[in-house]
Write a structure and sequence with these properties.
The chain is α/β, with parallel strands linked by helices and 328 residues long. It has 7 helices and 18 strands. GO terms for molecular function: 2 iron, 2 sulfur cluster binding; metal ion binding; oxidoreductase activity.
Length: 328
Amino acid sequence: MALDPASAESPATASRITMVLVNIRYAAQRINLYTFELEDGGILPPSEAGGHIGLHLPNGLNRQYSLIDCGPTPTSYTVGIKHDWESRGASRWIHEQLRVGARLEIDPPRNNFPLDERAGKSIFVAGGIGITPIRSMLTRLDQLGRAWELHYSCSTSQEMAFLRELSGRSNVYLYFSGGMNGRKLDLAAVVSAAPTQAHLYCCGPVRMIEAFEEACQGASLPAEQVHVEYFAPRFETATSGGFVVELAQSGKELPVPEGKTILQVLLDAGVDVAHSCDSGICGTCETRVLEGVPDHRDSILNDEERASNKMIMVCCSGSRSPKLVLDL
């Protein structure tokens, strides 16, 4: 998100920001909270509920993590990161190597999971680390005095971040799927009990989100009232190649061979394309399509946006037509 150019004192730009890790706090089993600030303690680009920042790690990995707080003039960013045994190396490096005082390049906040602040009631479903973007939404709705309801599921209470602050609230329902006496979340029941005009949000494991979307479709909820955010890619990256990408601004044509993504071909040709996750979950590489039919493989665009064929995530998607003309 871009800042108002008139805000001369603010360092907000579309480029990376060098920040310092000032605090690490324990949040739950295998989950820590990491707080970053500018060295001079200055104002950062604004963040909205549900937003995320990108961390550029010294080992070359770039990853997106949800902000647990939001605001128009933040002086720090805090993200919750789970040490995932099945990760591609980022969370392990962060938990084992990152220490207070470290300096990192950080991408300013983006938001692919925005909160509709006008809803009469908001209903949230969180699984595991999926609570992190939702936590900022709950705080924002409390500030606005809006009604909300949370259904939060983990294997055990030890894995549940923010348990102390959430426990005891009448609008919070906790589920622990592990153990003999575990209470499992019934997504169909949650969706069917939602008021007609409520907005529903879900973030968590892929299987949970898919089941949530299926329940919402079964209840015939309007698409504009259903919101999801994936932390892992839903689809395999397109690398079959066999098409051409035309850069509209120069007229240059770049063949995309088998085994390479559009992003890789663009970077190899020296085209400056913003990118981060390389798996279609952050939205950094979103590019306008002027001609052609993309083969969408991202986890961000909704069905209507996919059908319009106006945008593509070049890090993971391919082409169903012989040529794609991109606004580059």
